Amino acid sequence: MSAPRGPEDLERFCRMVHPRLVRSMSLYCGRPDVAEEIAQDAIAIACRDWKKVREAHSPEAYVHRAAINFANSFFRRKAAERRANQRYGAGDQIAGEPDILSREPVRLAIASLPRRQRTALVMRYYLDLPIAEVANLMGCSEGTVKALTHQAVIRLRQSPELVDLKEVSDAG
Q1: Minimal CA–CA distance to 30: which of 130, 144, 115?
Q2: Which of 29, 33, 44, 101 has the fewest CB atoms within 10 Å, i.e. is most exposed?
Q3: Which of 156, 97, 87 minimizes the C-alpha distance to 121?
């Protein structure tokens, strides 16, 4: 989409970006319900900062970066909640939280990756961003992006969550 300008372009941009944003965040965080909220938050940022977003080299990448930042904040909050629950004796399963074992194996495996590997993997292979753009968005070198995606792929190949899928693909 080239240099969107007015309110109509903002609305068109949001409608275009939203579905892909939800799908990529579902992969990134492994929770479709959370992905929808994160996508809405990122779209709200795009609306609030529309002038800045539309002037960005890649407005879609800008919004995806905002979404990844929201997702990382979500993970930090959840980690703090887990620590507090462990410290103060809360049960294993928090009310309203879905059972992680019922998740799709690929999402579970991706969610288990370290944050930077997961970020690089989703941006590079799911969003199909060029290595240079991923490096720019992550604030690292192109070599680091290549290394992170390589490490992520190796970890996914060794992931116990994907053993059944690997056996099916090897047999086919």
Answers
A1: 115
A2: 101
A3: 156
The label of the residue with tokens 């109509």 reads 8
Task: Give the separation between CA 116 and CA 127, rounded to whole angstroms.
Answer: 15
Q: Which residue from 53, 74, 76, 70 is spatially nearest to 5, judged by alpha carbons? A: 53
Q: Which domains does the chain have, with CATH numbers?
A: 1-98 (no CATH), 100-172 (1.10.10.10)
Contact 107, 27 (CB under 8 A): yes
Amino acid making up residue 39: A
**23 contact partners, CB below 8 Å, separation of at least 6:** 35, 126
Distance in angstroms (rounded) separating the CA atoms of residues 166 and 7: 47
Q: Which residues contact 97 (CB under 8 A, 6 or more apart)?
A: none
What's the pTM?
0.56
54, HSE (Cβ side, Cα atoms, 13 Å)? 18
CA dist., res. 10 & res. 2, Å (int): 12
pLDDT digits (tens, 9 = 90+) for 11-39: 899 999 999 999 999 988 888 889 999 99
